[in-house]
Amino acid sequence: MSKARYIILIVCVLFCSCEKVMEFDIEESERMVVVNALPSTDSLLFVNITYSRFFLDNQPFVAVTDATVSIDVNGTTMASTGRDGANYLFGYTATAGDTLTLHVSTTSLAARASCLCLICCHRWLR
């Protein structure tokens, strides 16, 4: 076979492809509240609270705007100082050895949307 035939064969193989459409048949689950928080010793604490979404959905996450958020820092309760979109802000910077307890509640979903998360910073901040 000549070089031209090899080139034509390679071009055909590279540019001709098969496509198989796969049907994805699964029901979307109910929306849930997603809470993300990462205490850091070099920045103020904020808690990001959004609704869950279907993993094939390309829309942005929807912020939970009616949440009540507080943290217990070594037994002392601090309320959120404000909100910026989905971020609930605190005027607090974590220090090594702090024990933080995060309390989040919302009225927009059923009781299972309320959560209590214990974050022990001393393991991550040292």
Summarize, please.
13% of the residues lie in helices and 32% in strands. It is of the alpha+beta class and 126 residues long.
Write up what this structure looks like.
With 126 residues, the chain is α+β, with helices and mostly antiparallel strands. The strands form two sheets. It has a four-stranded antiparallel β-sheet, with no helix packed on it. Helices cover 13% and strands 32% of the residues. It has helices at residues 3-15, 122-125; strands spanning 33-37, 46-51, 68-73, 76-79, 82-84, 87-89, 99-105, 115-120. Mean pLDDT is 77; it is low at 110-126. Strand 5 (82-84) and strand 6 form a beta hairpin. The protein has one domain (29-125): Immunoglobulin-like (Sandwich), CATH 2.60.40.
Count of helical stretches: 2
Number of strands: 8
CATH class division: Mainly Beta
The CATH architecture would be: Sandwich
Strand order of the largest sheet: 1-2-6-5
Which residues form runs of ≥5 with pLDDT under 50? 110-126
- Proportion of residues in β-strands: 25-35%
CATH domain topology: Immunoglobulin-like
